[in-house]
Fold each of these.
Amino acid sequence: MKQRGTLVVVAAICLGGCATGPWVKPYERGWLADPLMSVSRDPLSDKYLQHVHDVREGARGATVAEGGGCGCN
Amino acid sequence: MRMQLRTLVRALWLALAGLFAAPTRGALLPEDRVDLMYHYYNGGGTRVDGPALLVRKGIGERVSAYASYFVDNVSCASIDVVTTASPFKEKRQEYGGGVDYLYRNSTVGLSVQRSNEPDYVSSTVGATVAHEVFDGLTTISLGYNQSRAEVGKAHTDFSDHANRYQYKLGVSQVVTKSLLMNLNYETILEDGYLQSPYRSARLLGLSVPEVYPRTRDSHAVAFGMIQGLGSSDGQLRSSGYLRYRYFWDTWSIRAQTVELGYGTRLDERWLVEPRLRHYKQSAASFYADDFTTQMVFMARDRELSDFSNNALGVKASYLLFNNRFRLSRAALNFDYEFIRYHYNNFTDVRTGQLYEYKANVFQVFLSGWF
């Protein structure tokens, strides 16, 4: 019963979140469109640097870019 | 266990795909642009350089297509090569292409890529879906890549293959008008020949063939944030970012990556971005600098050893012009990164000391926006 109550509260919060408007209005998003705020501003350059790191490290994945090849150099 | 994981990942992927049935409006396609680059890497006895090209152009209002070409001219005399084989030169060429289709607040992308080396040829196909919700404040993205590589060995009949399946999930969130955060997860499932046919392990000081497991499952979770910083006149003048990634796999490698960067406009034309990167990892369970007994799996690949590296980089972009030659703007960019690698359990057999080296990475590229 307690679990069901918790579920109802969580669902209400989630649905309430859907009902409200955006907390950052469209006219406030000028900075967000600036290249300085881009996750990957130069895709070719980012892909190259990621390739440089990937072929020399054991870890990979969850990055903004990716490369190919055997990486055996 | 492996099948269960794959089934679980696929089920999760499909379940999240259900989110994309929600009402949509207003996403954007990537910018139309062209980049022409020369890149150069020199470190640890290896020199790699070559050109690269990326062209992306919209077709109508809903489709954006891109094509890329990348060349690595490799001149290799790395420690692996000089201690067990002869220095060599080779060329790698990579061709890529893709299409993105925009429908209301969703973007669907398809991509292909092929990489050719004399002894390694891989082909990759991929699909991505990105969807904006909450009036564009949240973007959820899913991705899947599948690749197959044919592995050979120069001057021999050796031939084998490797398969790779990548599943990606990402969430990007606008937190405030000057703060963006994102969270990404990626799992990579591999099977087949996952080692180099050239490298060897050491057993009591003698060279013996390396043997790797034929499967590897890896996972990475990354968190990032970008904070915009304004000047007194309310304009965005600079931004700072922080990224952290944790990686783990079934070969017992654990790795952490931290990146910190800062970008600022010096004036109307110059944009400068210094950055720092730190990486460290633990060794694979079947790695040893020098085995004392024969094992089922044996590796002495320094990329599977316990090591760390630190990198210091800077990118500088110079705005060449606006609205000329059918381009809305063009920029000349320079990027330099200095990396220092330090290995905790990989001996340079030439000196008997733990191995370390420095690398210089340089790019110069011209970017034009249509």
Amino acid sequence: MNGVGRTRWLVFTSGALLVTACSTPSTGPRGGGGLAPAVSTTAVPVVPYERLVNSDAEPNNWLTYSGSYMSHRFSGLDQINKDNVADLAPAWVYQVKNPGLVETTPLVVDGVMYLTEPPSNVTALDAGTGRTLWRWTRPMPSTVKNIGFPRVNRGVAVLDDKVFVGTLDGYLVALDAGSGSVRWEVEVADNQAGHSITMAPLALDGKLIVGISGGEVGIRGFIDAYDTDTGERLWRTWTIPGPGEPGNDTWGGDSWRTGAGATWLTGSYDPELNLLYWGIGNPGPDWNGDVRPGDNLYTASVMALDADSGALRWHFQYTPHDTHDWDANQIQVLVDDDWDGEPRKLLVTANRNAFYYVLDRETGEFLHGVEYAKQTWSEGLDEHGRAIVIPGTEPSYEGTLVWPSLQGSTNWFSPSYSPVTGGFYVAVREMGAVYFKQDVEYERGEPFLGGGEQRLDGDQAQGWVYALDALTGERRWQFNLLSPPWSGVMATAGGLVFGGSQEGNIFALDADSGEPLWSFYAGAATRTNPMSYQHAGKQYVVMSGGYGVFVFGLKD
Amino acid sequence: MERGRDLFAAHCARCHGLSGDGGEGPSLLGRRFERAAERSDLVRLVLDGIPGTAMSRTWVDDIEAVDIAEYVWSLARVTEGPIPGDAGAGRRLFEGSAGCSDCHIVNGKGVGLGPEMTDIGARRGLPFLRESILVPGSSIPTGPNGPHSSFLVVSVVMDDGTELRGMRVAEDAFTLNLRDRRGRYHSIAKSRVASLDRETGASLMPEYGERLTEEQVTNIVAYMANLRGGR
């Protein structure tokens, strides 16, 4: 009997009675006054690859970090909609057990919620009540390095009967979905050299794809694939080409060795083309480009890889020879729509460098690009999509004022695409910074920065949610936040866009007009992406604020 | 020391004054540094900044930070010139006819509407203190690394015509909290606001240049400069 068959008969039960060997959810009689059912029974979820490919068919669940391989972060649920969202209220709140930044996007599968807690712990909750089913804790001594980012984790992947997490100390761990016990673990790369994992892995057919953090430590970046049953590494594709490989000549001298190109956020996948789309981070050192003359491929680019072999099919570089830390790790969104009257497979992204790009995702051809936020470094894009750089905008010893700041016009937090409205929704940081350059030498496992920034913050900066036309990048509406945000957005079939603010608001906007329709004060900054699921006939929206994971539903 | 002085002028003088005599940041002359018992502590402060304050990290390398720290350490041995003015007379004005205590608390006494002044002399330099009396709106911190100013004056007209004006104490995308001249707090739903004016450069405090003589201003500055916290 394989592992899948065994776990089918493990059953989580919450309520007054213990029920065994029941593989379908059952709902007990409802008491008056909105009492919970006497017994609610949930089998251990099993997620074959086919469910991930067809995730649109089951909007009750949220099966991957971005909600689907196309990374729309769109919920097909519409029980919560424009007409009733004003009645949204907390159903329950989960508090993480270690203080820290909560950047997780929970997954929900068949009544079980899997989320990560800082620094690299995994918790399974009953999706109906928030009660803990199991918890896996990874010790994380202070000697573990996280240079250039906080001790966070953004979520898990699920496949078959396992839950997968990347850890701050550079490991990939497979857990049993029913108990949280370790099935296998493998070291992805040496943490003491600055490698680390904070992203949610991406599960494909028997393969787990994972990237690496360390762009501020002069690592050589890569994207890896692992066998989900054994943890064996299937392939590794370097993001910085070595000697003799195409692109190595875009690095002066030996600078490619410490070229960074981290891959610290979850990529997207087109099962038909069998292509992975992965955003690549900044070159190293970040702010001193003098020591790495050239375009520095494939930093600040998107790489399209064959999922079976890891072979590079095409690439597009958004910011050649980046000197502002504008990595291109932002979520790559797959859009199927007409282009010049013909159906076309598109890849769109709102880049940290303030431009919005539309590419052909079969070939990598640049189709369109437009400025979507304030920027002062470029006169615009040429016909190939390459930015025409304004001289004198690179960091200097005295400081150079440039928009956007090094956090970019947007950052890791997710955008959302609604197939209903054709809108691309993105949380935007309108902020400038004075960029400094410093001399720097590489030392293994130490910061490799070559400068930094002084932000123009406070009342000199603002946050926004922008609704762009996904094909043209033109702004349809905007919603003002006080401070530049660190939270993503989610559009829904209910005509809503959910988001969060640094001031602690969790809110819903009208997806067509941007009008605020609902808000809740969480009491601390939100630093994550919204998601949604349905359980026992009721839709929930999830968003974290402070140490709390808030789960909202309509009042009964 | 020469290099340290130049680096100080480039990176530190905007807040601490060209000669280290303070401004929006504290004077560094003749002080026992609260946060630096040794020179090496100063190096760390330069490189890391001081969390929770307007002092951000300085973008210099380790060697430059040592040069700056050397120079700042030398400033501690500079005897601060005598503070001009009569601090005793300044105190009587502050607590009496000038009306400063009607809005500011010193050592537990006064009204807590404007910023507390108990240790203002340790946090601000003489020129800044003088300017903040003459043109109070110019002294509201605006960054670059400060928080959203909690003394920003905001005027609001509600959709029913109600007018409110006060200091911002909190703001987010949906709600604005003001404190008015009488000390009352107002929680305002932004969805009901017809117009909202952030009066950058304004202050609820009167400009004292027209109310006090030059000598009186000097005396109040002398009093404030001697307020170093504790008692």
